[in-house]
Amino acid sequence: MTNNRIITHPVLEIPKKEIVSFYWNKSKLVGKKNEMISSALFANDIKIFGHHHKDGSAQGIFCANGQCAKCTVIANGIPVKACMTRVKENMIVESVEGLPELPDVDENPHISNIEHTTTDVLIIGGGPAGLSAAIQLDEHQIKTILVDDKDELGGKLVLQTHKFFGSVEDSYAGMRGMDIGRMLAQKVEDSAHIDIWKNSTTLYVFDDKKVGILKDGIYKIVTPKVILNAAGAREKFLRFKGNSLSGVYGAGAFQTLVNRDLIKPTEKLFIIGGGNVGIIAGYHALQAGINVVGLCEALPECGGYKVHEDKLKRLGVPIYTSHSIVSANGKESVSSVTIAGIDKNFQVIEGTQKTFECDTILIAVGLESVSEFTQEAKSAGIKVFAAGDASEIAEASSAMFNGKIAGVKVVQHFNPDVKEIPKSWYEKADILKSHPGPVQELKALGREKGIFPVIHCKQEIPCNPCSTVCPEGSIQMQGDPIKGLPKFDGECKGCMKCLTICPGLAITLVDYRKDHDHPVVFLPYEIANVEVKKGDDIALVDVDGNSLGTYKALGARVTKTSNRTQIVRVKVPRDIAKKVVAFIIQGKEATQKPTAKKNHNCIPHDHIQDDEVVCLCERVTAGEIRELVRKGITDMNQIKAISRAGMGPCGYKTCENLMKQIFSAEKTAREDIVNNVRRPLYIEVPLGKFANGGQK
């Protein structure tokens, strides 16, 4: 095995798996049984899987979710998606150089009957919303099929190693996302009324009120009375020079590699986007031992929770607000990134370009709902509900609670006598999906005796586990019981429960009992693969990441109730004790820009360069699209017919937003734009699957 595997992690267990041998372009390699081909290749430091037939550009991983085909390889003679195909003993895997040849097929395929199934409810998606809804349906004994395209339920929850925000009562705040996902999945899997179809992809909701589903490679048709769309969201992409290089991909792909497959896909990561998705991905990178070179956000402030942002700052990750990416640089793969400051009109400020060495650029610039199934069901005349990100983009804590509400609504459809949903549920749902409040100044506690928590929260967000877990009742939420800022007022026995449950790692404990002038500060710490031992010098920082000096650690340990969070103890002078929040683990050598400056032309941020790739599947550039728009073409279907933009395997999922940006830049009125008609399948499927249901 190469060193691209994660061999130690502060939160995740590293399971032992059987080793298998396979071949890559005639070279014998080893992988782990049942892991995806893409992960096995990354583990062997192979990140380019072939070259595009149109321009010879390098192809590699992009979505890691089966929705595009950038990771296509030839496995035992068949073109497959490397991110969705498991490696097997002696499998022969080859790169795709140009257009892959279609395999020989049986000229007289066996035509068999396709299985038809009926159900009361079809839930599309086994993530937080779908599982929460399914639990409600099970309680009322409603016959349900739940379809998910992964081999494990939980959706993105199972990729989240951090503790969740929200409400303890309603969204399990304080638990790690992966633990929540598996807990919800177990409840559904124990159900007698929920039929779970894993490794199954919903393809389309047809106008005859039937739904086509590819279940374990076999095509089936389901006729439901009701559909609940909980299919989640897809990541938005971004236009910039070099956006098609290998090493440019989204947070979902990154977290899949790191937290599901335990692969270390990069040594130096740069993040574009300061929402919760990008910030959390940076935190996961540090947990995996990856250097995070920096993060840039176009707005003056990050859109994610302040405590998330501060976690990165305090660990040594620089965050550049009012900055955007100018270019990804490299021949085939990313070797560096150039960012620049932008003004309030999003124009690049001359002379502010900064170039950083990195090998991966993570794009985290927002999500869009997978709403196709809702629209298709409405068109077919099927009663349909939507929950989670498929309905409205919000945090997973909100998706769980809104999934619960949607589940009850489905129950009411079948049984109108079921009790009305309380008004308080809707009020709570609004709180859980609410945006962060303004950043406030911290008010220092005047107390300097005994032991007590110091709470470093500066922003109202939906989060209340510290007040819920305090056995003395000494932490109270000011204002709203979920979203108010927590305040300590009372007695503390030093149990550290508030410290270890806080999702933002924003609570410390200060103990004056043994030495009033040099109290001991207890710090939560979750990057334990960067080990802290007794006597180590640690560089302490305040809530904003400002240096407070270097002091020796007294030790670090996990307690029985800390849920894999270490407690680091350090003795400090009294005047900084209540300011200490964390310590830096990533030195400046990991984040400094190269001394050799690259010459990059300064362009307005809202100007779309002709050579920027808009359609990654068909390699259609912004210049080609702009030329058609300037000729007066406003029908995206006509543009597709002429240029092939949107005709590739991803089916317009990535390039639609980028094309609309070109319309906007060319001053095309929104009402004049004719939207693309999406293809009638969610993903591409071999025709033989429809001929015989995939059976042999």
How are the secondary structure elements laid out?
Elements lengths: L18 E6 L2 E6 L4 H7 L6 E2 L6 E2 L12 E4 L2 E4 L9 E4 L1 E2 L18 E9 L3 H12 L4 E4 L20 H4 L5 H13 L4 E4 L2 E6 L5 E5 L2 E12 L3 E3 L12 E3 H10 L7 E5 L3 H12 L3 E7 L8 H10 L3 E3 L1 E7 L6 E6 L12 E4 L2 E4 L3 E3 L2 H9 L2 E4 L9 H19 L8 H10 L18 E5 L9 H5 L5 E4 L6 E4 L8 H5 L5 E5 L8 E6 L11 E5 L5 E12 L7 E6 L2 H4 L4 E2 L29 E3 L4 E2 H9 L5 H8 L11 H11 L22 H5 L4
Parallel strand pairs: 1-7, 3-8, 9-10, 9-14, 10-11, 14-25, 16-23, 17-18, 17-23, 18-19
Antiparallel strand pairs: 1-2, 3-4, 5-6, 5-7, 12-13, 13-14, 15-24, 20-21, 21-22, 26-29, 27-28, 29-30, 30-33, 31-32, 31-34, 32-33, 35-36
Q: Can you give a write-up of this model?
A:
With 696 residues, the protein is of the alpha/beta class. It folds into 5 domains: 1-107, 2Fe-2S iron-sulphur cluster binding domain, sarcosine oxidase, alpha subunit, N-terminal domain (Ubiquitin-like (UB roll), Roll); 116-233 and 369-432, FAD/NAD(P)-binding domain, CATH 3.50.50; 237-365, FAD/NAD(P)-binding domain (3-Layer(bba) Sandwich); 451-502 and 507-580, no CATH class; 608-696, Arc Repressor Mutant, subunit A. 22% of the residues lie in helices and 25% in strands. It contains 17 helices and 36 strands. Strands 9, 10, 11, 12, 13, 14 and 25 form a 7-stranded mixed β-sheet that branches. Helix 6 (276-287) links the parallel strand 17 (268-272) and strand 18. The longest helix has 19 residues, at 396-414. The chain is globular, with a radius of gyration of 26 Å. The model is unreliable at 595-606 (pLDDT under 50).
